[in-house]
Amino acid sequence: MTEKTLSPVDVVVVGSGWAGSIMAKELCEAGLSVVMLERRGRRSTARDGAYPSSLDELEGAVRYKLFQNPADTTVTVRNRMDQEAVPYRRLAAFLPGAGVGGAGLHWTGVHFRATPQDLRLRSHIVERYGRAFIPEGMNLQDYGVTYEELEPFFDRAEKVFGTSGEAYTVGGKATGKGNIFAPDRSDDFPLPPLRDVYTAHLFRQAAAEAGYHPYAMPAANASQPYTNPYGAQMGPCNFCGYCSDYACYMYAKASPNVNIMPALRRHENFTLRSNAHVLKVLLDSTGRKATGVVYQDAEGNHITQPAGLVILAAFQFHNVHLMLLSGIGKAYDPVSNTGTVGRNFTYQNITNSTVWMPPTRSTDQFIGSAGGVAIDDFNCDNFDHGPHGFIGGSPLWVNQAGVKPIAGAKATTPGVPRWGSAWKKAAIDTYRHSFTINAQGSNMAYRDVYLDLDPTWRTSYGQPMLRMTFDWKDNDIRMNRYVIGHLEGIVKALGARDVQYGMREEGKPFDVRAYQTTHLCGGAVMGEDPKTSALNRYLQSWDVPNVFVVGANAFPQGMGYNPTGLVAALAYWSAYHIRTQWLKGNGGPLVTP
Amino acid sequence: MPDIPHRPLPTSPEAAPPQPSAASPTRRHVVQGLGTGTAALALAGLAPSAGAQAVPQGGTGRAGSATPSAHTPPAPDAPRFFSPADFALLRAACERIFPADTQGPGAIALGVPNFIDAQMDTPWGRGELWYMQGPYRPDAPANLGYQLPYSPQQIYRKGLAGVQAWMRQTHQAAFETLPPEEQDRILEALEHNATQFDGLPAAVFFEQLRTDTIEGAFSDPLHGGNRHLAGWTMMGFPGARGDYMDWVDQYDTPYPYGPVSISGETA
After folding, report:
1. Where in this chain does the record put each Glucose-methanol-choline oxidoreductase C-terminal domain (chain A) (predicted)?
2. Rounded to two decimals, what is the model's pTM?
C-alpha cells in the first residue's frame, strides 16, 4: 500500500447515485472542478442492462449483481439497546446499491414529491392535535424547508427524470384526474401516466367502488420517448417487468447513468473515479473545516484528494457512517439525548397483502412497470387521526413492477405446505392468479432507534462497522393495522376468492431475513435546530460548513412515499443555495444557529 | 454478444473435495456430533418403518436405481463439485421438494441438482457474497439473520454428510434408496430442525436446499436448471421476452406466448 496526495480540486463528491450526480452536474455548471468518487465499478446500460442477458432473475435479484456486497462492507443490526448487534451477513431486508449510478440504477422508478404535511410534520401535528398528541420518546421534527420552497426543485427533478404521471391541479386549476390529496404544481408531469396493467386496473375499479380516490402512480419510467433538459434520451417503457433490481434495457427507467452522466461526462471540469472507497473526510486542526477526503483505490493505495468543498452523497447510512468516522458533528447518544449524528434513524413501514382472483382470471404478474394505481386516503394526515391516537399513514397501491418466477415461487402461504406437490400446485396457482397490494407507510423517529459505530465488527477496510438499533414501535404498528383494516372493502369489491392480509404484529421485532424496502432514512437529518439536526435546511453540516450531506439521511422521519423524488429535489435545492449563496460568501454557515 | 457465463471445471483442490468415506475422521466426527440422531428421529416419528427396511439398498448411490418408480430418470449428468454419493442424495432430496407430478416435471428432469452443483463453484457458492468474518454469534436471535460461519459449499458438505450419517444410524440405508414417503418424513424432520450436523442446524440445510431447488427450477437455463424451459412453462412465465407493450391493457386475457430464454430457446 502506498499513500499519495493528489492536486486539490474545488469539489469532491462522494457517491455517484442520484444525489451525487445532481450535485456534480450543478457544480460543474457553476464552473467548479469536480471529482466524483464511487466505491465500486463503472456501470452502463450497454453492459449492465444489455438485452436479453440482463433479464436474468438469478443474477439480478437473487445474486444481487448491482448491489453492495456485504463481504466488502455491511452493518450490524439489533432491535434494542440492551442487545449485542450482529452483522447483516446476507443481503435481504434492504439492498443498498454499489457501482456508478448507485441505488438510482437498480431502483424501480416510483417518483413522488413529498407532501406539504410531511415536510413540516411536527408543526402540522401540533397545530391540528396539540403537543400532547406526540408520544413520549418520538422525535417528531420538521425538515426546515416547505413544499412551496421545494416546488421548483420537484419540478426540475421530474423534468430531468422524464416522469410520467397525472397531475391533480396545475397552477390551481383542476385537471379532472390525479390524486385529490396532491399539492398544487407549477407544471404538469413531463409525460402522461403509464397505462394501468390489469391488476392496477382491478385495484382502480375496486378502490373507487369502495369510496376511495385512486390515481396513477408517478413513475420515472417514460410512457413515451423523451429527451430531458440535459439532452439525455429515454425510450418508452414496454412493461418488460425488469424494473426493481435491474438496469432498464429500454432506457425507459430514469437513472443517473442514463439521465445525467452523458451530460456530466461532457464537462471538462468533471472527473469520475470508480473503485474509490472513501475512508474519511479530512478536517483541519480546528475540526471546523474539511480539507478533502482520503480513499482506498482498487490496489489498496490510500489516496488523499484535497478539496475546498466536500459533498457526501453516498447511500443514506454510508453518509452517516462517514460523518461518524470523520468526526463531523457530534455523535448521537440516546442515553444523554445529546449529539445529532445517528439520531432520527428511520425506515419505512411496509406490509404486503396478497389477493387471489378466481381461477378464470390471469393476473399476468410478469408484466410490469414503476407505475400502478394508489390511494392516498390513509396516507399522511389525510384522515382525522384524533380518535386513533397515532401519527402517520400509508398509501395503498398495486405497484406491479414485474414478478418473476423465483420470487413468485418463494412466496409462502400460511396453511399451505412449503414444498412437494401440494406446494407446487399452490405456487403455480398463486403466480398465475394472485397479486399484491402494498401498504407502504411512514415510520416515525424514536429516541432509542439510531445509528452509531459498532464496538466489535469491522469492514473489509478495517474500520468499525455502522450499527443499526431499530425496532417497530407501538405507534407505527397501530398505524399499519388501522390502514390494513380498511383494505377489506377494496378486497370485497375486487371479487377476490381469497386474501392474505400482511400487517405488523405487536411483539414481532424487525426481521432482517426478508426483503422489505431499501427506503432507509435519517441519521443525519436536516432541520432548524442544531441540537436536533446534523444539517441545516440547505443540507449543510452545522459543524463543518464546507461539508454538505445529501440524501435520505436528511429526512427527520420516514414517509409513506418513496424517497427518491425528495432526495432529488433536496439535491437541486441544496445545489441552488451553494451556487447562489455559499460560493459567493466566505465559505461559512448559510444559517446562523 | 451477451456474456454467457462459462462454468469451468473446478481447478482448485478445495473445489474438488475428497470422496467422503465412512472411515474418515471427518465423518466419524459428524456421526458423533449428531448425538441425538435416533432420539430425534423417534421424536419426529421417523423410526424406520418396515417399508423402509424392505427396500433394497442401492449400493451404487444412484438415485432411481432403487426407487420403484414407473419413470426411471435418465442417467444424471456427472457432478463437478459433489461426490457421486452426495449427488445421489442431493438428487433424491431435490426431487421430493420439487416432485414430478401432474403439474409438470420434477427437479431431476429440470436439471436442478446440476444447477446446484454448478452454483457451488461461483462467488456465491464460495461464500464471497456474504460477510464471512468473525466473531460469529450462532445463538443470536433468528430475526437478526444468518450468523453461521459456513459458506453455501460448507452448508452442503455438512448437510449432505450429516444426512448420510443420520440415515446410517437410523435406517441403515441411504436416503435415496428409501421410498418417497419415507424421504418426505425425513425432509420434514430436517425442515423442523429435528437434529444438527456438526454445528449446522438441520433446518438451515433444508432451507438452503429448498431455496436453491426453486432457483434451479425457475432461473434461466443458462445456469443449468429449468431445462427445456419446463419450469417457466409450468408457472406461466414468458421468460426473457421483455416486451409486453401489446398486452398491457388486454385485461383478463391470459398472455398467449410461451417462454423464451436468454439464449433464444423456446418451449
Report:
1. 458-571
2. 0.92
